[in-house]
Design brief:
Radius of gyration: 22 Å
Distance between the termini: 38 Å
Shape: globular
Strand order of the largest sheet: 7-6-10-8-9
Number of domains: 4
CATH topology of the largest domain: Rossmann fold
Bound molecules: iron/sulfur cluster
Helix content: 25-40%
Structural class: alpha+beta
Number of helices: 18
Length: 448
């Protein structure tokens, strides 16, 4: 089987958050494969743990992806501060054609535009993708999954960190479809009863209070914070509130733009101008929306740069949606040119931790084995970019771990989904497939 077919068959998608089906990237022809081990979101350290404990599988995946894409150069990006992971990879790569690139401890070091520039000196054209400059960027866990695909092992488990207000912060493998409740149990439970969860990251992640939500192929883990934490008030404002405050309080100081990492790379993204679309000028929303086109939603402007604690990131997201709905496009004409102040305006992780009032939760999340198999999993059909997978099993079907549950719709972008638990299919809907174990069936929990 060709490498790209093998990756497709195993249901590998970008595990770093994007969920883009990896077999599509594996079909391209490039010069570089760049390994994204930057892990720049604060508090979650699962990629560093994986790099330290599973480097052989990651390198297997890297070599396979290089072979598939014809790449002659492979670069592994790791933050210099993660000395153990750097040491492991330097040792493993000694005498090979592959290199380690040590990254500074700033946010967002893992933005693919940033990583491509640092590793190759090339700037992706405005609105483009790494492929446009001969690169494929892949997260370390994605490469691990490619390595496992070569051993006939599809993606059934996710590596996650649980951090914050738990008794035992740690990083571990869980079956996809496991509830957040089980993750918190394995981390020793929460240290406070009144808590919320940030899902997959402080800056770019989601927000949840629902313990029955489940792990997907792109979930990086949970950060447990007090229910009255500063970030809760920043992340739970309604759009109407954000717009009202923004309209009345933005003084056009431009700090959001001056700190924007994409602006500093030379792209025409200017969130302070997008704020004008909220209605405090008479020039018209359409004119100002275009300055959001190249925003990557990193969150730095909203959560770090703005002295008034406004919401420029969210204004950019609204602007992009409006443009999409209106069929409008904006194309930067000038080639991007790196800002002379770029290196001096980088935001160190330490400053970010202090600004977000989470410094005291910055603790190791060491690798841990032994997550107990759950009695039930709920496996989402849409865990990736593209169309949801199409179920190929029915209620009552007996399945084993690794069995195919749902396939890619014909002629569509998508990814296959496999069973993460041995048991019986108890529910199939348009959104998910549930599997329960024999123990649940015998106790009367079988819904067949
Ligand atoms: S940093 Fe805040 S106050 Fe200043 S221009 Fe941006 S949104 Fe307005
Ligand atoms: S979220 Fe803000 S800082 Fe980040 S890319 Fe968008 S505008 Fe720039």
């Amino acid at each position: 089987m060709q490498i790209a077919e093998m990756i497709k068959s195993a249901g590998v998608v970008g595990a770093g958050g994007g969920g883009f089906p990896t077999h599509v990237k594996a079909q391209s022809q490039v010069e570089y494969v760049l390994v994204n081990g930057a892990e720049c979101e604060p508090l979650i350290h699962k990629d560093v743990e994986l790099m330290t404990h599973r480097s052989a599988e990651i390198l297997d995946g890297l070599r396979l992806l290089m072979q598939s894409t014809g790449a002659t150069r492979g670069v592994v990006g790791i933050k210099k501060k993660n000395g153990r992971a750097v040491e492991v990879f330097r040792g493993a790569l000694a005498g090979t054609e592959l290199e380690v690139l040590e990254l500074g401890d700033f946010y967002p070091a893992g933005d693919e535009y940033e990583l491509v520039q640092l590793a190759t000196g090339r700037l992706i054209p405005p609105g483009g993708i790494p492929l446009d400059v001969g690169c494929v960027v892949s997260n370390v866990e994605t490469l691990f999954n490619i390595g496992m695909a070569a051993k006939d092992s599809p993606v059934t488990h996710k590596f996650v960190s649980v951090a914050g207000l738990v008794h035992e912060p740690k990083s571990f493998w869980v079956p996809i479809g496991t509830s957040y409740r089980k993750l918190l149990d394995f981390a020793g439970g929460t240290t406070q009863s009144d808590f919320v969860m940030l899902v997959s990251g402080v800056l770019m992640g989601g927000f949840s209070t629902d313990l029955d939500e489940v792990v997907t192929k792109t979930c990086a883990g949970l950060i447990v914070l007090p229910a009255n934490h500063y970030l809760v008030s920043r992340k739970t404002r309604s759009t109407e509130q954000m717009n009202r405050i923004g309209k009345s309080a933005c003084d056009q100081c431009t700090a959001c733009t001056e700190f924007c990492p994409r602006y500093l790379l030379g792209y025409d993204i200017q969130p302070h101008k997008v704020m004008r679309s909220l209605g405090f000028t008479t020039s018209g929303t359409d004119y100002w929306n275009k300055f959001a086109t190249y925003c990557c939603s990193c969150g730095l402007c909203t959560l770090y740069a703005c002295p008034e604690e406004l919401f420029p990131r969210e204004a950019c997201e609204q602007a992009k949606t409006s443009m999409r709905e209106a069929g409008q496009k904006y194309q930067q004409v000038k080639a991007p040119r790196i800002h002379s102040m770029k290196d001096y305006r980088r935001v160190p992780t330490k400053s970010l931790l202090r600004r977000l009032r989470i410094a005291k939760y910055e603790l190791p999340t060491p690798f841990a084995d032994g997550f107990p198999a759950p009695d039930e999993v709920r496996i989402m059909l849409q865990q990736h970019a593209g169309k949801p997978a199409v179920p190929g099993v029915k209620v009552g079907t007996n399945v084993q771990v690794n069995d195919l549950l749902a396939d890619i719709p014909e002629d569509s972008l998508g990814a296959r989904i496999h069973a993460s638990l041995t048991g019986k299919v108890s529910e199939v809907t348009d959104e998910y497939i549930c599997i329960i174990t024999d123990a649940v069936v015998k106790s009367g929990g079988d819904t067949v």
